[in-house]
Amino acid sequence: MTLDLAGKNILLISPRYFNYEQEIQIELERRGAFVYYIDDRIKNSTINKAFFRLKLAESLGKKKVFNYFSDHLKKMGDRKFDYLLAIIPEGFSKEIIEFYRSQFKDTTFILYMWDSIDNRPYIIETLGLYDRTLTFDKSNSEKYGLKFRPLFFTNHYERIGKEGVKSKYKFDLSFVGTAHSDRYSVIKRFVSTSKSPLNNFFFFFLQHPVLIAYYWMVDPNFRNVNVKDISFKGMSKEDVLDVISNSTAIIDINHPNQTGLTIRTLEVLGAKRKLITTNKDILNYDFYNTKNISLIDRENPVIDNEFLSSGYDEVEESVYNKYSLSSWVDDVFSNLK
User: Fold this and answer.
1) ∠165-169-170 over CA atoms, to 5°?
2) How many structural domains does the chain have?
3) What pTM does this model have?
4) pLDDT digit string (tens) for 247-294?
5) Using CA atoms, how far apart are residues 248 and 304, in angstroms rounded to an integer?
6) What angle do CA 140, 251, 317 make, to 5 degrees?
7) Same domain, 135 and 179
8) With DSSP H G I counted as helix, E B as strand and the rest as coil, what are the percentages for the chain, rounded to 5?
């Protein structure tokens, strides 16, 4: 039974991230809530996204960011909110959270992290300002005292899953994602081990060319990257769905400093496709099945061609549904006033 949010006012603060914030807003509104959305990144241009990635948000000026959030208060007028949900906030700093708390004294403040706090240590000083804190990363949950709640798949991937298994797929392997850390080098080494020819689709994304130069200087993994393999324009949601729908297996290379499951992992579950991942934490999840999931060593990644040619084993319905966006919303907002 889904949580009833009819008549609730929800303030959603999140960076724009491949439209996931829109999917969350749609689900909340589907349940009858009014949602006011604030993009957490002031002037969400490509170059400013790059600055945030480089932890150069200060270059935008703290006062400018404060004024940005203050201006949103004016746009809200006298509206009161039942909940404020902040998702991996960057601009929504300690000072601004305190300011918003002074304006919304009866609002329940919720934080959800879908990136490791170890990658975003500035979050630590804000944890005590929220009424409820959740994370996708079990190790962060244990370390910092946040409630553990994995990510989700949306209805788009569920619809792919309902299509059933195809007799033949366009791609044997696919990858669509940001070209961070050692992802590029691991995938290139991995595909070179195949015992037979494979038809693959790989899409490596970076938000701005300046990141190539930055990563080349600070990360040895980037010194072997072919710039021609990098796109500075993201794929449309429809194109990503089409690639996953037409793939036998999807590759997921988690960040070395991250143990929580990526959202791509859950999307592959939703689409009922095979997963190849470097994330050892996958062993601890109730949907882990060696027929569907191949765990590889990022230091010595090797393709198992038999895994690609074998069938998909259906996941128990109750386990499958637990990772839907609907269940995620239930868990994030459950047992709150």
Assistant:
1) 155
2) 2
3) 0.91
4) 999 999 999 888 999 999 999 999 999 999 999 999 999 999 999 999
5) 13
6) 70
7) no
8) 45, 20, 40
